[in-house]
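PROTEIN–LIGAND DATA SHEET

This sheet pairs a single protein chain with one bound small molecule, pyridoxal-5'-phosphate, given as SMILES. Inputs appear in the order they were entered. The predicted three-dimensional arrangement of chain and ligand is reported afterwards as a token string under its own label.
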Amino acid sequence: MTIEIENELSTREIEDRYEVGVYSKREVTIVRGEGARIWDDTGREYVDCMGGQGAANLGHANPYITAAIEKQARTLISCPEVLYNDTRAKLLQKLVEVAPPGLNRVFLCNSGTEAVEGALKFARLLTGKTDIIATVRGFHGRSMGALSATWEKKYREPFYPLIPGFSHVPYNKIEAIRNAITEKTAAILIEPIQGEGGVYIPSDDYLPALRQLCDETGVLLIMDEIQTGVGRTGSWWGADHAGVKGDIMTIAKSIAGGVPMGAVLVDEKLPEIGKSTHGSTFGGNPLAAAAALAAIHYMQDYDLPGQAAEKGEYFMSLLRPLVGQEGSVVREVRGRGLIIGLELKHKVVPYLKALLERGLLALPAGPNVLRLLPPLVIEREQLDFAAEQIKAVLTQVLD
Ligand SMILES: Cc1ncc(COP(=O)(O)O)c(C=O)c1O
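PREDICTION REPORTED AS:
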């Protein structure tokens, strides 16, 4: 059944008229996707290096996900967590199988910001302390707790007063964190690579030093893997590269193959989290659980983390020559696996528009970083196409 609505307005006019208007939209109406390709309403094809802002790691219309959703939708969609459910139980087993060892206690929710909220509440519960240390340029979401940990002023300021007890220290400076810890500190909340803030990769010794600092002081380490997790960096979890795991880990974005889901994973060595301290109507719903179960199976069957590592190296080898090239506006290329940032000498927005015109979708990360988060199933020819467009556009000055 297709629902058609009689209308004189275009899709864009309707969205512009009826949405509250918090998004700056690109001039394109997307109607279909397959793998790393998407199509607009005129039939034009694009290579997708936006990747659903990290929610499309498994590619659009992934056959494992569509089959799992269809089957589960015919069986059972709603089942609150106060009742046991077979699909959810299978997902939990599978999720802890791929999670860092020991992160065996799971709270399921519906988005990244909700996962961060859960992690913050659990950190307070588990330590009896209130304060959280986050980082300059860190991004953790837009709900009030997560926003209190997010650094960017323009997201925060309109909503003051935020939750007290949050501080921000420079990223990749262990001494700054050491100096910020007080007797009230419950946890340090950190991204293994800062995504939204500009694709910043810490030095190899930073996360191990942070782990050691947390062990020495009893402060909990919350690893926000919402953007870096689920294979994106070439390993299951972004902090794997440093051989480090958090006491609490947050995940979301691609964990259910693009269907909304978030999760908080808590180390089994921590005390029990009490009944009725947290909850969610949709959390652990069988539809999202079936999608997540299928997503993890697909990632294992096709070794998506391995694919991300290999393709990321290839993609960056095509992009790195832009640094120092005559006429190029690229200052630096940074990345790990398929999270890649190109720091530009100019504002990124005009370049995003020019890339769109050439059939490539990409993201910003801060004012002057071009961020690439393609589906991990992207093909080599599509990476070649993307690199060609990027080279053509980033060798001119646009405003
Ligand atoms: C590291 C990190 N944490 C949290 C979030 C918030 O996730 P969501 O947009 O699903 O609320 C994001 C989103 O980009 C993120 O990158």
